[in-house]
Structures are given as structure tokens and as C-alpha cells.
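Problem statement: downstream parser choked on a complex file, so we are re-checking the raw output for the iron/sulfur cluster run. The parser issue turned out to be on our end (a line-ending mismatch), but while we're here, posting the original submission so the record is complete.
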Amino acid sequence: MATATAPATPRRAIESGVPDNKQYLHPTLKKNYGNWKYHDRPRPGVLHHVSHSGEEVWTVRAGTQRQMDVHTIRKLCDIGDKFADGHVRFTIRSNIEYMVADEKKVAPLIAELTRNGFPVGGTGNSVTMIAHTQGWLHCDIPGTDASGAVKALMDDLHEEFIKEDMPNRVHMSTSCCEINCGGQADIAIIIQHTKPPKINHDLVANVCERPAVVARCPVAAIRPAMVNGKPSLEVDEKKCICCGACYPPCPPMQINDPEHSKFAIWVGGKNSNARGKPTFMKMVASGIPNNPPRWPEVSEIVKKILYTYKADARPWERLSDWVERIGWPRFFEKTGLPFTKYLIDDWRGARSSLNASAHIRF
Amino acid sequence: MAKKMHSTPMLDQLESGPWPSFVTGLKRLAKDNDMMVDLLGQLETSYETKKGYWKGGTISVFGYGGGIIPRFTELKDEAGKPKFPDAAEFHTLRVMPPPGMHYTTDILRKMCDTWERHGSGLIAFHGQSGDIMFQGARSEKVQDAFDEINQLGFDLGGAGPAVRTSMSCVGAARCEQSCYDEATAHRTVLNNFLDDIHRPSLPYKFKFKFSGCPNDCMNSIQRSDMAVIGTWRDNIRTDEKLARAYFAKHGVTDLVNDVVSRCPTKAIQLVDASKIPTGPTISAVKVSDTQAIAIENSDCVRCMHCINVITGGLAPGKDKGATILVGGKRTLKIGDLMGTVVVPFMKLETDEDREKLVDLGKRIVDFFAENALEHERIGETIERIGLVNFVEGVGLEVDANMVATPRTNPYVRADGWDDEVARIKAKKQAA
Ligand code: HEM
Ligand code: HEM
Ligand code: SF4
Ligand code: SF4
Ligand code: SF4
Ligand code: SF4
């Protein structure tokens, strides 16, 4: 395989590791490091932090497209130079934040961001930017795109980003394979393959380390086999759960299918320890078609769930808290989503997800 | 001027709408960059056929084994020639961010200049694993790009079976809930694992994440092999002025419905201002002249909810530190796992405390290296061998905080019981 051509005398890397962030901190943050007292939110998209020393800082948060061209980044830098003393930070969900020590700068900063097409919001009880993955743009195993799906959905949910009208914060994610780099979320949109991999037997012997592929399958459905006189692999299609785990180590086991790779929607993941313990999300819908460039069928179901939650949940209830109160039968009733047999878990430990009680809501 | 643009009717539809468009950004780069012209061509093809066209490979920089994600196109004509030759190689450099993802515009501009010179001009702030992702370099440009980025003070992150890039929350820099210096802990731990980051040789990936409090903004319980989550041991602090301000705005209905009744362990009570309970484990604060809330701290599980609602009026205590959980991961292969407690509390204030954290990390990664099967995450190893074997293997003591409940089946050989009781007793007496 190709390697980067090294210069005549290769430079030794400076193994500096993680850089010190002190050199990048906004001066007010540096001065009050570890000494913050409380914060409030004067309006959506703005956090106001007060230090024990009495100093204050306003943070203005804006959405970005995450996959940014250098011109967009330089524009964001121009805004940072003009208003925020040349300091910025990014959130885990690719929002950009500007810190200002002078309240008078907040309104013009918001105006400048808005004028340049960066929506201000994503704080408190909003639907913040969707955590997304790589997709067709850069990953080697995706069943769909990530940036495009997120752009389409955030266009639809823009109002909920710039307002704080939800019962509690809403974190969403998308993932373009079942590995789910996007992660646990209140609402997650994840590829769900529905057919076993189609194997290109001519390539397996050259490309794949067969024992490693066999070992990767969660249900032991893969066996070494001779096909057309060549060493290859075969899949017991009755056993296969179409997870796609065999595909990354062995690309000839083509799992992605334009027709049969669908989307599933998952709800109720919560990372925070607030109130109940963290929760995993649960699958509530599947079979949704993969329809670029705007995936309208996905948006429709997501919005149905989101707005049912918005109308029905009480203050501070995350999606998982809400379902815990109303129960799963009513979740399906209220959202109009069908409850099918595929939603009953049969993986290891599944019995703990069954209702072992006479607790039934009528 | 770059070469002629390909027609991209599908992608064009992603240029309208209120959210910032990555397509508009790609097109802008394509104006003077042939690689981007062809990248748009390949991406449009993916949108039409619903297929991906990248395959991996091996590319590295001098002295390192990981940190570059190689991408070669598989979209070729009958003769085996790439259909979009200028984007036939589109490698990514994963670069570790500073803790909390703070930057000066100056350093961002320098990164942009480098990436315009040596790469496509497309950068993601940030990937899900926390890296700054410099996306789109030809093989022969990877070393040059890295050299410049490295000289700016940045280093490659992990890829493959390695210790991976880490993330820490904004924490002490701008969050009143912070219970330790996340940034220093993050740097200290990761920079003690540089060899395991740059030269992948573990059974599989290993991720650390650092959250300053149980709100866990870094999603560390579910997304990291070793989660360091801030917490405190003493009583919740109170501030009467801010507690009264909350009450003045919200009244008793919200106080009861949103705070008192949402406490998971019912540790909070609404009390009469003239009958405020006292005691070494009680935090109480007046919200008005007639009413107050009282928290029994020995019942509180440090969930953060009441503090989130009455921020400032209630605050984490002063005896701060962290809880360590091990074993979180997503689906493959045995199903999702959350991290579980292995150290209920440790101080993280001094360099010495942080050394203990590094030492714990080292013992856990060493145990992982020696005992995990290939392509097994540490959570799966623990599932396979049992928590006790893990805990004993890394030299920790079992603790009732490690379980949600004691065992519910009798399938255990317990003939060592008396010896174990004697050992615990002896240890307690020695302490
Ligand atoms: C000003 C400082 C911040 C405060 C006071 C704060 C507050 C909170 C609160 C109250 C929760 C728990 C919500 C609940 O379940 O009730 C939470 C969770 C979370 N916050 Fe923050 N937050 C802050 C900054 C941030 C930042 C800067 C980020 C990301 C860049 C972030 C990302 C998250 C995430 C990912 C979670 C948990 C996710 C989940 O439960 O799914 N927070 N935060
Ligand atoms: C060849 C196979 C794989 C490739 C090429 C790959 C690639 C990637 C990439 C590019 C990301 C970052 C995504 C982003 O920045 O948005 C990522 C993240 C992630 N990958 Fe993989 N991955 C592979 C295999 C796996 C496997 C087998 C698992 C699970 C066992 C996995 C679990 C994850 C998770 C959980 C994340 C999110 C990381 C985080 O939250 O820190 N990946 N992967
Ligand atoms: S979710 Fe899957 S396809 Fe998407 S970026 Fe992650 S590994 Fe690649
Ligand atoms: S798709 Fe999953 S279940 Fe099917 S053969 Fe591959 S690894 Fe096994
Ligand atoms: S994890 Fe806690 S300390 Fe860190 S940013 Fe979130 S709320 Fe603040
Ligand atoms: S932090 Fe403690 S007192 Fe407050 S709601 Fe959580 S468990 Fe209850």
C-alpha cells in the first residue's frame, strides 16, 4: 500500500500530545478558572456566567455545519476578532461559542452571526445541533450520508434550535451504520440493514483475513468455505442479523444496499445522571427509506415524536423521563407509530426489558 | 481557477434552508481546488446510487503508526481508472484538540492556511471522538501537513487499536458545576499514554473521557472505556440570595413539581422556615420568609438535578473529586454497555492526586492489553470474566458502590467467605 513520501531527512515528530488550553482561553475565563458561581440564560443562545469574584461573561452560541471550509472558519474568526477578543470555543456538538466580557457586545454579535447565516441558539431547552458522523463524505463503510441528513433535519428544526421551547434539552444524533458513532441521544437516526451481506467471492481471499471476519460476527453466522475453487466465506442467512459488523474487516461482504438499507429511529437515550441514571435509547421505528438528498420520511417521524413530546411532557422531563411517566403503550399510541414484534428484544439479557409485573396503565 | 464543476443536482438541494450548508462550503473551495471539484463529483454519485466509495489503506507519518485515516476512491471506470481522479486520495489527519476545545482565532487561521496549502481546505470541528479532522490530503502531502500542524503545537490523535483522542468538558473554565480541573486531568492522563496513542498495539480501542460533574456533558459513561466524572463528598452548598431569586420567579408550584418531587432519592423536603432541621448532613436554605428546602445529603446521589434547576442557590460541595467508571461502549459486538463504578471517589486536586489517576489508567490499560481478546473492548472483557476478576486484577478493592444490587442468584462458590471477612476486618483495623 501507499505510504506518505518522506522527505530526504524526515522530521522527527514532536510528541507533544494534548496541547495546553491555557494559551487559548478567553482572558475572563482564565482569570476566573474554577471560580464560577452561577449562570442564567438571558435569551436563547446566550449564557451569562457570574464568578465568585463578581466578574461576568456572556457566551453566545451559534450553529455551524461542522464540516467547514476554511472560508467559513475565517469568517467565524473575523467575528471572533471583532467581538470576542480573538477567542472562541466549540461544543461537543460542533456549535461555536464566543465569550464576551461586555454585555453591550452581545446584541451586535448576535446580529453579525445571524447576518452571516449562523443561527444563534442551542442552549437550555432547545433542540441543539445533531451529533453526526462521516457518511459518504469520508467513511469507508457508510450506508448513507451524515452531513446531508443533518443539514436537512436542522433546516426543519431550525425554529427549535433558536428557541428554548422544549420541556428539557433535546440531544439528537445520526449514524450511517449500526456502529453508531453518533452515540446515545434523546432521538437517534441510525441505519438498519435488512438483508445479509452480498459476498463478492472473487475478492475475499485477497482482501480479507478470514478468521478475523468469522470472529467478528455476533451470531456466529460466518463460516470459511470454498466457492468456485477459491477460499471464501459463507453466511448462514437464517442466523444473520444484518448488523454489518463483518463489512469493515472484509469489504467484499457488501452490506450496504440502496434499497434494503433502511433507517431506524431510537428514542430515550440520556447521558446525564440528572434525576434517573443514564439510559440507553430504544428502537421505536424502522423500515424508513434512505432517500437523499433530504430524507423527508425520516424528518416526518422525527418531528412527530418531537412535537408529541413537546406537547405532552412536563417541565424538566427528558424524552426518557416522559416515557417513563406515560409508559411505552401510550408512547406508541400518541405518536401513532406501530408497535411491531421487531421491537421486542431477543438479544442476551433481553428478559430484563420485559414487563415482569402486573403494572399496566389503562 | 479550478477545472469545470460537475453537475450536482442532488447536492444543490442542500444549499437552501436556514442551517449553514456544507455543500455551499465545498463549492466555494472547489472554485480554486480541483480536489474539491472531484470530491463533489464523487459525493453526488453517492447521493444518486446510495453507495459509499471509499476504502481504507495504510498511511502514516514518520515515526507514528496511527492518526491518519486513509481514503482511496473505489469509484472507477471499466479500465480501473478513478472517475474523479483529483479526489482519488482523500486522507484525514486526526488531530487532538486542546481540552475544552478552546482556540484563539490566530491558531485557527494558521490551521486554515496550512490546510489550504497541503489539503482540501475542509476541516471538521470536531469528529465524534473529539479530533479536529483535517479532511482531504493526497498521500504525498500528509507528511508536510502534519509537520506544519505539529509545529503549531498540535499532535495526532489515535486510530485503530490504540488509546484514542480524549475530550473534556468546558468545566472549570466556564461552568460553576465543575468538580475538578478537567483540562489538567485530561492533559496529564493522555500525555502519559502517547506511545499507546501513536503506536497502536492494544487489543482494540481504549477511550478516556473527562466530565466535570454528573451532568456528564462528555457522555463518558456511555462512550468511554474509562470515565472520570466529577463529584463531591460533603454537603451541597447553598446561597440564600440566589435560592430566594429562584423562588421569587417560580413560586411554590414549580419548586415542588420541578425540584422536590424530581429528586430521585427523595432527599429534598419543603420545610417551614421556622422549623428548619439541622445536623451535620443537612443542607438547608430559605427560599422565602416562610419556606425553606432541606436536603439530607446522605440520601443524595449527586445526580445534579436540583443544582441544575436552582443553579447558584444550590451548588456542589467543597470536598470535590471524581468517580471512575470503566467499560462503556456502543453495540459491537455483545450489545451496548455502560461504564460501571470502579472507584467511587478519589481526590483530583494536586499533581499527586493526578499521578494516582494516571497510575490507575496504566493498570487498567495494562490489564486490557494482557487480558482482552482481539477486538474486545474492556467492557466486554469485564462481562466475560466478571467484575471481581477485573477489580482484583487491577488491584482495587470491591465496594458496595460498584453494584446496583447484590447478586440475585446462588450460583457462586462461596467457600472463601470466612477468609474474606477476616481479610476485610484485618484491613479495616490496619487502616
Ligand atoms: C454552562 C455550562 C453548562 C451547564 C450549566 C450545563 C447544564 C447541563 C445540564 C443541566 C444537563 C443535564 C440535563 C438534564 O438531563 O436534565 C446537561 C447535560 C449535558 N450537557 Fe451541559 N451544561 C453546560 C455546558 C455544556 C456544554 C458546553 C456542552 C457541550 C459542548 C454540554 C453538553 C451537554 C451534554 C452532552 C449533556 C448530557 C447529554 C445527555 O444527557 O444526553 N453542556 N448540561
Ligand atoms: C473499519 C472500521 C471502522 C471505521 C473506519 C471507523 C471509523 C470511525 C470514525 C471515522 C469515527 C469518527 C466519526 C466522527 O468523527 O463523526 C468513528 C467513531 C466511532 N466509532 Fe468507529 N470505525 C470503525 C469501526 C468501529 C467499530 C467496530 C466500533 C464499535 C465497536 C466503532 C465505534 C465507534 C464509536 C462508538 C465512535 C464514536 C466515538 C466516540 O464517541 O468517541 N467503530 N469511527
Ligand atoms: S456511523 Fe459507521 S458509517 Fe458512519 S462514520 Fe461511523 S463508522 Fe462510518
Ligand atoms: S451482517 Fe452481522 S450477523 Fe450477518 S454475517 Fe455479517 S457480522 Fe454476521
Ligand atoms: S459536565 Fe458538569 S462541569 Fe462539565 S460542563 Fe457539563 S455541567 Fe459543567
Ligand atoms: S443532587 Fe441530590 S438532592 Fe439534588 S436532586 Fe439529585 S439526588 Fe436529589
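For whoever reads this later: The mean pLDDT of chain A is 95.
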